[in-house]
Design brief:
4-stranded antiparallel sheet
C-alpha cells in the first residue's frame, strides 16, 4: 500500500560510528514524503553515557527557503536518538527514535509515518509567536 513504511536496516552496535549514525538518519529521512521545497541539514549534538546504554543525539533542522526569502523566518527541528544497548549482544541493531521540537511524544520510525504537516505546524506556530511581539 501507499502508506507502507520503508524499513531501514539499522546498523549493529558493534559497527556504529557517529558518521554512520548520521548517514542512517539521512537514509530514513529520504523515505519520508516531504515536498522537495523543504531543505534540511543534520548535525551530531552529543554522546550520552547511561547505565545500560549509550545514546547519540542528532538534530535535523528543516526550512523552506525561497528566492524572495532565502533566509527563512523560522525553522523546525527533529531530534533523533540512536541508542546502543550495553546489555544486548553487540550484533544487535541500534534503537532509533525521534521527537519533534516542542513535543515530548517519542516516535519510533518503524511504528509511525512521518507527516510533513508536523514541520509546517512548528514553523507556523513560531511565526505566530514572532508576529505577536
Amino acid at each position: 500500500t501507499e502508506h507502507a513504511m520503508k524499513k531501514i536496516q539499522w546498523i549493529t552496535g558493534n559497527n556504529f560510528t557517529v558518521e554512520r549514525g548520521q548517514q542512517q538518519i539521512e537514509d530514513l529521512i529520504s523515505t519520508w514524503k516531504v515536498h522537495e521545497s523543504w531543505l534540511h541539514w543534520t548535525e551530531f549534538l552529543q554522546e550520552e553515557e547511561l547505565e545500560y546504554s549509550k545514546r547519540y543525539h542528532y538534530r535535523v533542522c528543516w526550512s523552506i527557503p525561497t528566492r524572495r526569502k532565502p533566509i527563512p523566518r523560522a525553522t523546525a527541528s527533529v531530534y533523533f536518538v540512536i541508542e546502543i544497548s550495553k546489555t544486548k549482544p553487540a550484533t544487535s541493531p541500534v534503537e532509533v527514535f525521534f521527537t519533534l521540537e516542542s513535543s515530548r511524544l517519542i516516535h519510533r520510525p518503524e511504528q509511525c509515518q512521518f507527516r510533513e504537516k508536523w514541520l509546517k505546524d512548528i514553523i507556523e506556530n513560531k511565526i505566530i509567536v514572532m508576529e505577536r511581539f
